[in-house]
Amino acid sequence: MERRYSDMTMEELRQEVSELTEKARKAEQMGMVNEYAVYERKIIMAKSYMMNPADFKAGETYEIEGAPGYRFKIAFMNGTFAWGTRLDTQNEIAGEEEEALPISMLGEKIR
Hints:
Layout: H1 10-29, H2 33-48, E1 61-64, E2 71-78, E3 81-87, E4 99-102, E5 106-110
Antiparallel strand pairs: 1-2, 1-5, 2-3, 3-4
Helix pairs in contact: 1-2
């Protein structure tokens, strides 16, 4: 039975990320695009549990990893997820709805 990431120690999370990274690499080599995408999402979630949600505050804006040209302004935090709006390069709202991103997808803080 798989354990929840929230129940794992930091070392167990590191091991999980390592194992998932290897599985993702193999899936990519074999051309299994969907399986690769699943492993990538699991890696993002596991990494979120290795971070401190208290480091992210409402009202702050961050770059989005893997989405150049977009920023994310946090409205509120809920566990390892930051809820807010995606902004484009002109700081205009890029999406129509508020969305949630795992905190491991947030890059550098925009000052």
